[in-house]
Write a structure and sequence with these properties.
alpha+beta; four-stranded antiparallel beta sheet; Immunoglobulin-like; four-stranded mixed beta sheet
Length: 289
């Protein structure tokens, strides 16, 4: 079964392929002989130069590591990792399936959870994926924000004219546009400066104006989120998944389909029951203005 990797277009991932099961005793990998290629599964078009970061191939023991940096939304790629000649003059090849989808809301990976639990079997990968998905959803809903690094569009209808708005997602890296009832505000020109913004998501008028009350609408297009999910968030999700997986294993239902797990998880798990998870959610929760 080929290793599967899920990522969003802007996300960057270091991928590791383990050759220990096929290497003979004393056989080693030679960095200079390694090749990594990426092709579109449907069309066969080669996208190695855009999907794989050149020069990032490394050897760590029996593993080949490389960096995935791009990909088109909604596209599946086949990544072929070829060892070239090893120290024993053998050639080994492994495939990695890369799925790029900006709608994926995963704050950890199945492989991470399996490593933390010492699991090498692929028997429960589908269940594990669903647990990661539900745990990620729980954290994002509890924190009232998304961690995805992408472009967001938000529409505001303040009950009264306000000088500041608080964007839903952060850290903010760029503001593409601020439009009030069809009129675009200028971030900065030679003569006027309508608004400023900060990394924490605060958008403030500095020209004496306000963001008007409803029914006027203010539409903000901006880029925010994390290119790499923070490690404490990943750890919280891994912990939640591990706990639920082990519970199901203990009860003899680890291989069942997920079923209504998402509903049960949302109702049955309290962040107050785990101080670590509670702390992470509090740290990244959207702040009231």
């Amino acid at each position: 079964m080929a290793q599967s990797i899920l990522k969003q277009t802007a996300e960057r991932k270091t991928v590791g392929v383990d050759y220990s099961p096929v290497l003979a005793t004393g056989e080693t990998l030679i960095l200079g002989n390694i090749s990594v290629t990426a092709t579109d599964v449907l069309t066969g078009t080669d996208y190695t130069s855009t999907v794989i970061q050149a020069g990032t191939e490394t050897v760590s023991g029996d593993q080949i590591l490389f960096r995935v940096i791009a990909g088109a939304d909604g596209t599946t790629y086949k990544i072929v990792v070829n060892t070239g000649l090893t120290s024993s003059n053998n050639i080994h090849e492994e495939d990695v399936i890369l799925v790029v989808n900006d709608d994926i809301q995963l704050l950890a990976t199945v492989d991470e959870v399996k490593r933390s639990l010492g699991i090498t079997s692929t028997d429960d990968d589908v269940l594990m994926f669903d647990l990661v998905k539900s745990s990620s959803d729980f954290v994002e809903k509890s924190a009232n924000r998304s961690f995805n690094f992408k472009t967001y569009t938000e529409t505001f209808y303040p009950e009264a004219g306000v000088r500041e708005l608080l964007l839903e997602n952060f850290p903010v890296t760029a503001i593409s546009s601020v439009v009030i009832d069809g009129i675009t505000l200028d971030l900065a020109t030679s003569t006027i400066r309508n608004y400023v913004w900060s990394k924490d998501g605060t958008l403030r008028r500095v020209d004496g104006g306000v963001f008007p009350r409803e029914p006027a609408e203010t539409v903000v297009v901006y880029k925010a989120g994390f290119e790499t999910v923070p490690e404490d968030v990943r750890h919280a999700v891994r912990k939640m998944v591990s706990r639920e997986y082990l519970r199901r294993l203990k009860e003899g239902i680890a291989s069942e389909k997920l079923g209504t797990y998402e509903v049960k998880f949302g109702a049955g798990f309290s962040e107050d029951g785990d101080e670590m998870v509670k702390g992470v959610i509090h740290r990244y929760r959207k702040r009231p203005l």
